[in-house]
Amino acid sequence: MKIDESIVQGAQSLLADAQNIVITNHVGPDGDAMGSALGLKEILRQQGKKVTVIVPNIYPKFLKWMKGDDEVIIFEDNHEVASEVLKNTDLIIYLDYNSLSRSGDMRDVLASAAAKRLVIDHHQQPDDFATVLYSDTNMSSTCEMVFHLAQALGWDEYINKESADCLYTGIMTDTGNFRFSSTTPTTHRAVARLMEKGVLPQEIASSIYDTNSRNRLKLLSRCLERMEVFPQYQSAIMSLSASDLDEFDYQKGDTEGFVNYGLTMEGTIMSVFLSEKDNRIKMSFRSKGDFNVNQLARDHFNGGGHINAAGGISEVSMEETIEKLKALLPQYEELAKK
């Protein structure tokens, strides 16, 4: 995997000069966000660097087995401590996002920090705030990018089993268990090297996917019962209201992956999942082939992401959001037929 030499040299210079490093990621951290953060932290720790991971808010319980989890600072719970660490750091590494708008309540503190900034991300249309930017929208995940950068820097010896487990987690989850089109031969070669470092895929898969509570399965059942299918547009819409989440004692991460169920139906190429949280509607989009949900989310729902995976937000009611979404489907009929 070839990375532009100016990026490698720029990252090398920033990392060589920094002794106190903060790694952060986006609001609502997922497997790729936490895997890349904790994996990179362990790689840097092996080199004697002082590294602190600060994330905007809590993340799912099924990610808390990774090494370094017990040292993560949650900004929303420890605002003063996190702010002080950010104030005194040499370098901030932004992983799995490319806009300060996705940092939640951390945004102002990050924007005012004097530290240099290294951004590593695979999403489209990055904002211009990095000292060094490593952006590649063709990569499967930020974890894969961290692996390739470590290799380009000559750091293979610093990738141990613990960091390999973290990086594998992000690659596995962001590729939908290697099903998405972002999975490439390069991805599999990276995974092969991580396995050589000691990764056991069956154990990581079990840690992520075999931890369902009874309430989570009931919540999934409710979601599937409420699914609406639109064969003429090859689309499915699923939703959960705030009362649904309350009824089944929703915990962070309980709805992770629900959006993918729509795509498992024969003939469906777009699936949308909506959930009502904090008095607004959070939206997840997934698609197959050339159906560009990134553009749909950007144009209509204050979001974005990738061609086949994106997120969005609606500030109106669930009913209004669903009706708006339904009204938009005819505009994408031709794309659905490709």
Automatic annotation (TrEMBL):
Could you name the domain of life of the organism this protein comes from?
Bacteria
Q: Which GO terms describe its molecular function?
A: nucleic acid binding
Q: Which SUPFAM superfamilies match?
A: DHH phosphoesterases
Q: Taking every annotated instance into account, which residue ranges of this chain make up the domain DDH? A: 20-171
Domain called DHHA1: residue spans: 247-329
Q: What is this protein called?
A: Exopolyphosphatase-like enzyme
